[in-house]
Amino acid sequence: MLNKQYTSMLQEKDVIFEIFQYATERAKVVGAENIYDFSLGNPSVPAPSIVNETIVQKVNTLDPLALHGYSPSFGIMETREKIAVFLNKKYGSSYKASNIFMAIGAAGALAHAFRAVTNPGDEIITFAPCFSEYKPYTAGAGLKLTIIPADIDTFQINFAAFEAQLNENTTAVLINSPNNPSGIVYSTETIKKLADILTEKSKEFGHPIYLISDEPYRDIIFEGVDAPYVANYYKNTLTCYSFSKSISLPGERIGYLAVHPDCIEADKIIEICPQISRTIGQNGAASLMQRTVADVCNYTSDLSVYETNKKILFEALKEYGYHCVEPGGTFYMFPRSLEPDSQAFCKKAMEKDLMLVPGDIFGCPGHFRIAYCVPTERVEKALPIFQELAEEYL
Amino acid sequence: MLNKQYTSMLQEKDVIFEIFQYATERAKVVGAENIYDFSLGNPSVPAPSIVNETIVQKVNTLDPLALHGYSPSFGIMETREKIAVFLNKKYGSSYKASNIFMAIGAAGALAHAFRAVTNPGDEIITFAPCFSEYKPYTAGAGLKLTIIPADIDTFQINFAAFEAQLNENTTAVLINSPNNPSGIVYSTETIKKLADILTEKSKEFGHPIYLISDEPYRDIIFEGVDAPYVANYYKNTLTCYSFSKSISLPGERIGYLAVHPDCIEADKIIEICPQISRTIGQNGAASLMQRTVADVCNYTSDLSVYETNKKILFEALKEYGYHCVEPGGTFYMFPRSLEPDSQAFCKKAMEKDLMLVPGDIFGCPGHFRIAYCVPTERVEKALPIFQELAEEYL
Question: Least enclosed by CB within 10 Å: which of A164, B178, B370, B393?
Fold first, then answer.
């Protein structure tokens, strides 16, 4: 018999992808230039040229047996070393290669992190608004996911609701800063307060509460924004990173898990990652890509377009009467919808060929997500539609 | 608390890899030229040059946003199409692109296949000798794995034991031909008989018993060997393939699941694969590699060395007094150990710096595996050690 869990998931398919598919179909009818698709978080700037140059150099110079051969199950040692060195230089941390596990993107890193520090039935807490895929990710590890309601005035953490929820079954807390969908960066004050609470409650409950920090947008931070490196404030932190957004390689599925060197059982957490991998499809990162990112981990794509787009869009929306907390990074914005029912609002936008994602799937109804990882010209051409939409409400 | 299941797995770590690691350490002491390492199934011939040429061509000609961007969750359509066409031409099958799901190697394909057609608690049956990783693979999907004892005279299927075991909870049967570790290829007679039993029992139990066919060694078949394409004999077949061995890309983690077009619920099986992927780490195949294999799926490495090695080794072992069923493919051989305790036997070999893997981990004690994916010269130089070892017993 086909699997019931996965069959039932078909009912609640990926909403974002459905909108994207609608946009693609619609483009065939009215022309792509008349569709304003802000549904997908797909980088709009290419990988820096050094990425492709490095791929070609590896292919042309390395022994093919070594280049394409099995990697150690933790990842290629040279890559892990270079990433540790890079992190230490950038964030003043003290990672060793043995704290790094190479994974297939942030999702792969999260899959290992969840399974390493929890047991099925445990509770994991995250904060709205949050990435819609956290539900299947944590369900796959047998976890009970609790989503703390958003503080919609700031999109920092709603600490009162969080503290009320924390309990003995909570073994991990999951954060995502810079945040998808809000674009908000947790401040040093927020991270410090979170760390204090986790330290205190770990003591009270008699077991560590691990902090799993999902950081694919870490390199997209706007000017002047207070953006602390999370692991520096709480030693029991597992950092999940992806090269998808920083060097625009989402399809190559390459990232890593970095376990704070002073994390409780740090060595064992890394040691069991290959065991986890054995049970979920031997999903180690691909060899050529591991060798490539080893050499380019200190590069980023030209990410400036995202800040440019943010400024234009944020100012315009404010002028049109939208309410939005200003993003500190990413390429997302999360304004309030102009009617309480954000699905109805997004449907209205869709009728104008403007593709937005309702906040409901991020655990935060009454809002909508704009993924402005598009050429600036597209943002500018979409403004009159945002305005027209606003005028229907205000 | 760290995960109990994965922590306990550390006790029964990958034996093969431990032997390989010992060999690597030992090589530092006595020199690599004095170590005869037959532990790992790592291809010894490079990828055909067309592979690297194709990678470079893709990198140099495709728009980097498309090249490295998110793929559809089923895999890139063009790649799925080309694979379907290739399979149909080679095996007379009638796959459509929609029957193909791109996965991270055969392990990734298996991870999806197991989860698609079973529910946790179901029984899956496989046949000794079998790949040691089937245990964690199926445990990860919550399955009860039953291993049917080997027919050690032929290493075809022990049908009497199989039929006695089949029951209502059996929802899938897993086979691996050409086989790791025996090198045996299931004959047309074996596959036909298996298909007949599965058809009959599916009727009797009132639900399909799916056949999951793990085929990473499908392209390494020796001259004159009867090697049927499994799915042609049983429509409810899910074929799991990897490019690891055929074009020597094990580290690139690229393969696919092909569902027979007439399989019961074929469309739904593929449809739920991306849902499965969401829960086990979004483990889709990397984009550049998908585009590469699309163009080279009709190529293989020069695989002839494996047959050369087989001949030399098989004849020599026979002469020295070993008993071995002659392999029909792969780069493995699975002779009987010269004492009933194959672990003790392999330890004795190891003392002579000859690295062999005891059959116990393949569900078939009393045997040992030789992975002869090494240069022919290494095989030749190892022969006197095999002989010396035999002389201690005979």
Answer: A164
